[in-house]
């Protein structure tokens, strides 16, 4: 069993304090959702957890299985088993989806075992084919340049494909639902559910509760102005769907 522990995390961006003491523990097998209005620091949390250099941690601690994540660069965090599906995936013209995924997978294998010679091409093709079927992706995707000219929904699918290939211990999905129509959302959610299990913890970051109809969280947290102000079970997401964020704002302004 793995555990991701975030303790009293403070993060600044360009000198402005955005996260003001986040506490959150996620165990493998658990699905947590963080909901909150735009601009409250949800993406800041995901970037800070992955080690983006623009997000300066000014206080607090993050541990994955008692290893100090904040001392590691983004590569090492990824090799340790952290994964972030970006809200805004970037295009990499010239690098095919297949090449990108194989390079990433081999870097992970080498980090686990320096002797590793990398996955064989036939084994990789088989793995990729299986994972793409799971996400109902056309095989031609593998040969296309990463995210180059991809629709919003296609980019999100590639993020999940990457997650399904790298098999991380903890996956953070930042607004994976945005830009997806209902059919695409269902497919992406099915893909996430198919690889969700007792071995993996998932943090779903979302503004809307819609995705939580498809990927059921065990815990729902609300972030307001850089703090988690409310934590509860899935019923909290339904209340936010019906009543918006106003009642939570009122409760915590008071
Ligand atoms: P959310 O994901 O909840 O919508 P963000 O974490 O993206 O919120 O942003 C929180 C705040 O931090 C916003 O006020 C935003 O303008 C600011 N911020 C985030 N990233 C940057 C950045 N790279 N440069 C400047 N300001 C940023
Ligand atoms: Mg965001």
Show the helix and strand layout.
Elements: E1 3-13, E2 16-27, E3 31-35, H1 42-50, E4 55-64, E5 67-68, H2 74-80, E6 82-85, E7 92-96, H3 97-112, H4 121-134, E8 145-146, H5 152-166, E9 170-174, H6 182-195, E10 201-206, E11 219-224, E12 227-232, H7 235-243, H8 246-253
Parallel strand pairs: 3-10, 3-11, 6-9, 9-10
Antiparallel strand pairs: 1-2, 1-4, 4-5, 7-8, 11-12
Helix pairs in contact: 3-5, 5-6
This protein binds adenosine-5'-diphosphate and magnesium ion.
Question: What does this entry look like structurally?
Answer:
- The protein is α/β, with parallel strands linked by helices.
- It has helices spanning about 40-50, 75-80, 95-110, 120-135, 150-165, 180-195, 235-245, 245-254, and strands at about 5-15, 15-25, 30-35, 55-65, 65-70, 80-85, 90-95, 145, 170-175, 200-205, 220-225, 225-230.
- α3 packs parallel to α5 (about 150-165) and α5 packs parallel to α6.
- The mean pLDDT is about 95.
- It binds adenosine-5'-diphosphate and magnesium ion.
- Magnesium ion (MG) binds near residues 42 and 43.
Helical percentage = 25-40%
What order do the SSEs take from the amino end to the carboxyl end, as H and E? EEEHEEHEEHHEHEHEEEHH
What's the pLDDT, averaged over the residues? 93
Number of helices: 8
Number of strands: 12
């Amino acid at each position: 069993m793995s555990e991701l522990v975030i303790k009293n995390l403070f993060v600044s961006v360009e000198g402005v304090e955005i996260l003001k003491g986040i506490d959150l523990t996620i165990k493998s097998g658990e699905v947590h959702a963080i909901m909150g209005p735009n601009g409250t620091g949800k993406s800041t949390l995901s970037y800070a957890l992955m080690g983006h250099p623009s997000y300066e941690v000014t206080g607090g601690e993050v541990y994955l299985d008692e290893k100090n994540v904040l001392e590691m660069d983004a590569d090492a965090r990824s090799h340790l088993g952290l994964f972030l599906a970006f809200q805004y995936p970037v295009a990499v013209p010239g690098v095919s989806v297949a090449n990108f995924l194989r390079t990433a997978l081999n870097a992970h294998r080498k980090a686990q075992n320096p002797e590793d010679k990398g996955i064989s091409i036939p084994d990789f093709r088989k793995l990729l084919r299986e994972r793409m079927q799971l996400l109902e992706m056309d095989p031609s995707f593998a040969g296309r340049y990463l995210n180059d000219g991809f629709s919003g929904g296609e980019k999100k699918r590639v993020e999940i494909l990457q997650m399904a290939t790298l098999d991380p211990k903890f996956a953070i999905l930042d607004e994976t639902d945005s830009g997806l129509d209902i059919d695409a959302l269902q497919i992406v959610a099915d893909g996430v559910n198919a690889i969700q299990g007792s071995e993996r913890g998932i943090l779903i970051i979302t503004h809307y509760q819609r995705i939580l109809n498809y990927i059921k969280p065990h815990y729902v947290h609300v972030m307001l102005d850089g703090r988690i102000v409310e934590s509860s079970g899935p019923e909290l997401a339904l209340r936010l769907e019906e009543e918006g964020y106003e009642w939570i704002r009122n409760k915590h302004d008071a």
